[in-house]
Amino acid sequence: MSFKGWIIAGAVLAAGAVSVGTSAQPVTPTRPPVRATPAEPVVVELFTAQGCSGCPAANRVVEALAQEPGVIALTYAVDYWDYLGWPDTFARPEFAQRQRAYLQAMRLRGVYTPQVIIDGRRQLSGVRRADVQRAVDQEAERRVFPPQVEFREAGDRVGVGSGTAPEGGAEVWAVTYRPGPQSVTVNGGDNRGRVVRHVNVVRSLSRLGAWTGRPVLYDLPDTEAGEAVAVLVQARADRRILTAATL
Fold first, then answer.
1. Is 102 helix (H, G, I), strand (E, B) or coil?
2. pTM surpassing 0.70?
3. Does pLDDT of 49 surpass 80?
4. How is residue 189 annotated by DSSP?
5. Looking at residue 143, what is its pLDDT?
6. What's phi and psi for 64, nearest 5 deg?
7. Torsion angles phi and psi, residue 138, rounded to 5
8. 220 vs 227: CA distance, rounded Å
């Protein structure tokens, strides 16, 4: 089976000024160079909760990352902080289940918030802004030549092309989310009285099927007005994300 019109992120270099110095007085750049759009998108998954006192800071970190070229940022609200007195309005049990799957794959001691998972390969605290940015930049430089992804023009199906499947195979997931920021006034728990802001809040997760290295066409879940879909091709065993695309 063949697919046409594969969606591949182009490498777009940002123009920057070049400073020239002399040997007697070298010029030190005051800002790091602008990172080019990676050929393969970096997926940043934030596990957060409205009742978590440290989470608003991590939410801001991920909101900034969501503006970067080549980054797919997704926010999953978990429900295990609800006992503090505020039931998270975005949380669903399957989001905490996804976080626990990373726990097992990475052999971590336990789940926590705010946790950032990058490309399913590494994890760190979402409040460590510099460390999170460094990890994203490193992932953007990694090239694995994954299978290509194509959304059909009608927007109801997606194709994943041929490639080398990881040991144990892979799964294709559809993540439905609300693009952009959303704010919630928290009326209980540790964040009582605060307005908590989130970006790209995940609404649902759907497993579309298995991927074994051969081209496959999958049906996408229905979405509501204003929602978007990210498709992730993810190794079943170690949970690393092979590639991703958004509709």
1. helix
2. yes
3. yes
4. G
5. 75
6. -65, -40
7. -65, -40
8. 13
